[in-house]
Amino acid sequence: MERDRSAPCMTGHTTGMAYSILAEIGQLLTALSERGEAGAINLRSLPMTDADRGQLEEILGRGEVRAELDLAGATEVWETSYNGVWWIRHKGAGDKIATEEIAVTSMPEILMTHPVDIAAASRRIRQDLDSAGVQSQEQKHELGQKNEWEARNV
Amino acid sequence: MSDKRTLGEVLTDRGVSRRTFLKYASYTASIMALPPTAATAIAQGLANARRQSVIWLSFQECTGCTESFTRAKAPSIEDLIFDFISLDYHHTLQSASGVAAEEARHAAMQENAGKYIVIVDGSVPLKDDGVYSTIAGISNLQMLEETVKDAFAVIAVGSCAAFGGIPFADPNPTGAVPISEIITDKPLINISGCPPIPEAMTGTISYLLSFGAIPELDHLGRPKAFFGETIHDRCYRRPFYERGMFASNFDDEGARKGWCLFEVGCKGPVTYNACATLKWNGGVSFPIQSGHGCLGCSEPGFWDLGGFYKPLSTAKGDALKYVGSAAVAGAAFGAASAVIARNKRNKILKEG
What we know:
The complex is a heterodimer of chains A (154) and B (352). By secondary structure, chain A is α+β, with helices and mostly antiparallel strands. Helix content of chain A is 41%, strand content 19%.
């Protein structure tokens, strides 16, 4: 008799967890809609089987937005078919899922640019312009003012 | 060594964005069972923190805890912890040796007095003046006391450092004791396991860095985030336990169908650890998912508490008789094993 080699893990069975999470998402959506309160559910801490995760993903479906981020490993973010419900999947070593969460918000924070990074980008672009010998608008303005002053005082 | 800049400044200069901080923070929040919304506070805390000086002392141990801590296949989010700490002393990993290594330890202690963390793996032998394990001409006890003197906190990683582990097992020929028997005047965190789950170690350090405080601990000094629930509480095979469906040996129908491993000695109902949710090898599996019962390696005295393949109901010691409820059994086992371990330690200390 051939031995069943797939059985010991039993991770291919659904447990009903997907619908429990769906109910919680419903509560969080109500809070977001009525009071503007964002919320999130950490999927990693829940005893879900692979089949549960697949079932939840199928129920929520895919919406209008999808983003791929390259942050010390890949991160995928997509809005589900329920507007305001986002699936965030962070991958780590070996492209395995490091953590996964459902964010109920108008915009996940991970997609927004932090002010510190904007300031760093601003510094970098000035350096790049300097090294290329191109004057920035600010420098042109300063130079224009200087020329105007010199013209008046000749 | 000492860098006065914040981690945010250091990593921004290296092109690491705050999004990456946020990703790491989300990962830390998830492994510590904090609400996902805590990620913003963790990211901010990490960005404002200075690189943490860490002195790692290895005593009577097998280096399995270091293996676990450093285990990673490729540069990834899990590796960011190595950007957040400055590992100033570690026997196995440092390139320096002899006098230079000891000078590095003393320099780190001096430069970061009151701020550095001491991580200890391995138990400390006390019998015969600690002659059974010496480093740089001094006993483990001397090195521990000298190094911890100006530390901010001490983390005992692995069951040997936390509870004595295998060196502490009968007949304990070296008079081994856990770190908690020696260090009583500093914040001490136990991260038990043989070895501990890597995320339990990195998550605890990240918490210390982000919040500048010790995470909530259980009665054995372990972070509740990782040791707050039993393996059994979070085991995907638990529905079989509830229905009374057990494997009675490793090759019967129950084993092949993935039923509960209680009858073949699984210690999951009395073992507090996060294996069932964090799993091992990057989340691939954990012992029960691979078909073997839990050994209970994160509990005190696990080595001496009956056979690994004997069900809990027949395990050694009256206090360990199965009492019908996994939660009650867990508490009874934990308390009983802690008492046994403490009595044993007291006996060793008396005998000197």
